[in-house]
Amino acid sequence: MKNLLFLLIISLLVLPVKAQWNNQLRLFPIPQSPEAISRYNTKVYFVSPGTTFYSFQQGGTHWSAYTIGRAIENYDSAQILVSASGNYNEQQLSDLCFLNEEVAYAAVSEGVNIKIIQTLDGGINWSKVENDVMLWTIPKIAYPRTGFGYYLSVRSSITQALEVIVSDNGSCTKKDFPADYLKPHQFSFLNDSLGFLICVNSANQQLLLRTNDAANSWEEVVNNASDTLQSFFFASPQNGYMISRDGFLFTTNDLGKNWAKSTQLTTSPANDVYFADSQKGYIACDNGQLLVTNDGGTSWHQQNTGINQHLKQVYFEESGRGFLLDSQDYLHTNFQTGLDVHEENRWQIVPNPVQDRLWINQADNSGNYRFQIFNARGQALSEKQDSSVNSIDVSHLGSGIYLLVIDAGGKKINRRFVKQ
Questions:
Q1: Residue 78 pLDDT > 50
Q2: In Å, what is the CA distance from 186 to each residue of 96, 292, 403?
């Protein structure tokens, strides 16, 4: 009997655990219903544990939310720096490159030109990088260190031919780039001289290019014919991983000189690859499928996340806490935000959009609640602390997007609303 009980316990321990993915991760200003508003150019950057940058375009304005080094459990907090109008007003974010939690560079449109902006304080302030050449279409940028970056520029709108511009604190040098390489997809430099680019050639073959001499020359290190190369990730300059749309994994352990191609890992189309450490790796696929390895990619098992969308991006910490961005731009997480479903659903605000008064519907009035309204810059505009309050006068607010934060005994409920 004891042996039977022991075997039963062991069998339960080794059963795969189904991850519970929560699609209510609230990163302001991600709306609760992404399909409810017209959005485009959505970008999510996982900078480091506790630091995420999310942005999207709407109505000519580029809204962006930036969590800066916050505790992971507080991702649903309203105290998030939000950049709008002053930073991205009526400009389109082309690409953004993070060095760490404090330093980032972005390429944004400025009429027919492009300007490079930088932040050195975690997104609180952005300033223009004064380059000494005129910048036109720049789909991709890469910064291996502060002040030193690479711009991939389209030098001909007709042929879409590319060139590389190297900026050393604004002093720019143009590098010749083979005319046969087009349609840049992913661009990254691991140090001042070692860089990689996913693109296609004139025959529409999928390529990974490598430079080890600061973009003076490029070599094809992977030619994958018609199977789209989706993304690459380097856990270190030595060790890299790249996934193709058809589910083939490419690996390198020699600074990207040579790549080994795996057998097909999945029949579900793949979109993104990420390794949290040398052993734990993840591949995001269509139809909510996630591939997981715990042995550095030697073996993989498939996990059904229960998300009924294609998975576009994946990011995990060493602890196992992860994030998935789906094809509808919902951000999912496998940790709890502190609110159960009933607590989350019992707080509703109407009408939305609102003109004069915002009504708060709740199941009961027990407890002590605090209400705060934040503008698009994350600034607190008003505050009430009264459990009997069931409406808020918002007639004095200007038109725009706001966030109502309800603090119910330490649990924060965020509700986005639009003031007309």
A1: no
A2: 12, 23, 34
pLDDT beyond 80 at 401:
no
Using alpha carbons, select from 369, 403, 400 the residue that is nearest to residue 387: 369
**65 DSSP β-pair partners:** 54, 82
How many CB atoms within 10 Å of residue 54?
23
Q: Is the preceding omega at residue 269 within 30 degrees of 0, hence cis?
A: no
Instruction: Provide CB contacts within 8 A for 262, sequence distance 6+.
Output: 248, 249, 250, 251, 297
At 320-366, the pLDDT tens digits run 878 888 887 777 877 654 444 445 456 677 887 788 888 877 655 55
Question: Against a cut of 0.70, is the pTM above it?
Answer: yes
In 191-308, alpha helices (H): none
Q: Residue 310's pLDDT is what?
A: 94
Q: Which two tokens stand for residue 189?
A: 């430099």
- Which residues are CB-contacts of 11 (< 8 A; sequence separation ≥ 6)? none
Backbone φ and ψ for 227, nearest 5 degrees, come out as -80, 115
Q: What is the DSSP letter of 204?
A: -
Decide the pairing of beta strands 61-67 and 51-58.
Answer: antiparallel
For every residue of 43-105, DSSP letters joined together read EEEEEETTEEEEEEEETTEEEEEEE-S--GGGTT-S--EEE-STTTBT--EEEEEESSSS-EE
Contacts 24+ apart (CB under 8 A), 218-225: 218/177, 218/178, 218/181, 221/256, 221/257, 221/258, 221/259, 222/250, 222/259, 224/248
Element (H, E) at 343: helix 341-345
Domains along the sequence of the chain with CATH: 27-333 (2.130.10.10), 346-419 (2.60.40.3080)
The whole-angstrom separation of Cα 331 and Cα 291 is 18
Place of tokens 């018609």: 226
DSSP characters for 236-257? SSS-EEEEETTS-EEEESSTTS
Taking CA 317 as the corner, what is the angle to CA 96 and CA 68, rounded to the nearest 5 degrees?
50
